[in-house]
Amino acid sequence: MTERLVVLGGLDLEARREFIATASGAIDKAAGNTVGPVGLDCAEVESLDDGTLGMLVLIARQAQRRGARISLERASDRLRADLDAAGVSHFFD
User: Fold this and answer.
1) Domains of the chain by range and CATH?
2) What pLDDT does residue 4 have?
3) φ/ψ (deg, to 5) at 66
4) At 70, which helix (H) or strand (E)?
5) What is the pLDDT of residue 34?
6) 75: closest CA among 43, 48, 39?
7) Residue among 88, 89, 77, 17 at smallest CA distance from 51
8) pLDDT tens figures, 32-76
9) What is the number of other CB atoms lying within 10 angstroms of the CB of residue 32?
């Protein structure tokens, strides 16, 4: 695994932009690399709000376009169920 970033729910727009920029840098490092996916530590996210869901999907799509993967670590069952319900769980390891 290349890098592990901590995801927080309920971030405001500016904080989400900063997290996306940080994640994009980690994705760039992981793209085409054999070290594994970029890990997102989701222990602090109990359930998904719209902003967090959008942020995660945007990051996952960036990774997919660059040939990298996103791994959700320590994600709760509720978080995974929310991703399934939104139809986007296939983006994540």
Assistant:
1) 4-91 (3.30.750.24)
2) 76
3) -95, 5
4) strand 70-73
5) 58
6) 43
7) 17
8) 665 678 899 999 998 789 999 999 999 999 999 988 889 999 999
9) 9
